[in-house]
Design brief:
Number of strands: 0
Strand content: under 5%
GO cellular component, one term: membrane
Order of helices and strands: HHHHHHHHHHHHHHH
Mean pLDDT: 82
Shape: elongated
Keywords: Signal
GO molecular function, one term: peptidoglycan lytic transglycosylase activity
InterPro entries: Lysozyme-like_dom_sf, Sel1-like, TPR-like_helical_dom_sf, Transglyc_AS, Transglycosylase_SLT_dom_1
Low-confidence stretches: 3-27, 167-175, 339-348
Number of helices: 15
Pfam family, one: SLT
Oligomer: single chain
CATH class of one domain: Mainly Alpha
CATH architecture of one domain: Orthogonal Bundle
Amino acid sequence: MPVRLRCTALLQQALLVLAVAAAAPAAAQTGNLDSQLAAGLQALPAPLVAPKPPLSQVVPSQVLRWREEAQALEHGENGMPRDPARAATLYCQASQHGDAEAQFSLAWMLTNGRGIERDDAQAAHLFLAAAEQGMPQAQRMMQSLGTPRGEPPPCLQPMAVQAPTPPAPPVQLAARQPQRPAPPPPEPLPANAPEPIVNFVKLVAPEFNLSPQLVLAIINTESNFNPNAVSPKNAQGLMQLIPDTAARFKVRNILDPAQNIRGGMAYLRWLMAYYQGNVVLVAAAYNAGEGAVNRYRGVPPYAETLNYVRKVLAQVNRVVHPFDASVTAPSPALPLMRVAGAAPVVRR
């Protein structure tokens, strides 16, 4: 074939390809972009920075001081007189802030009547809270005491977790001419978020009626953007899905970054409807499970979960979020959570 004819044929083929692409529906183009971004996630390396320390071991210094003072008062050590009642009060304060050792110590005092009135019912709840945080001694005690009955005691009532107050906008002088209100500033995203993850989340999050900022905050707190992260509880991937949650939301390959993110978003969307847009309760449930949030009527008294919720709120600066009420019925415990002091439930 002459060169001129061959070039003409190639040009016609190129124009035909362009015409087909131009005629493709927007949904198909979005799907192609989705596939391209998902493919980019496959080549995502693990972060070069060290992973974050386990949150379950993080206890605020003030809580640690309460526990240490309680131990001294319980046993009459460190030059302090023995005062079981005061020790129990301090253990109670530390227990409410999620200190598993304080929960175990107070439960031990209650079940043995050491200087305070014996109360096996309260002790069982405290042993359970410590056991759920991974304390082996508490897990053994639960085997002998059995499942606690009734409501958790006051020492395990949910703590109020507040979002940080955003800085006040700068004061501006009144303009001579009326001006349109400035558009809201873009939501800040984690500085350590890899670009492929940010792009994929921004594309997919609207499908689940979720803020990309919230999704990235969850990923950052869960895995530090490590697609290969695996926790001691077998939570896996960027959004740390456990196998049961992955199966619940039909994630076939839990370590595939795109599938993992979509599965995590599906769970977040469900939690948003279940807790009617309450970001505090959603974050707590994503970390500890909705069963624990319902049982404690708010953020469970686990050091890891309390710290987790604070970290998420520090990145999103909001406590309410739009939700789709058609996804699931609200938690039956929500009215009780209002009484227990959980964050207010607001529907947009």
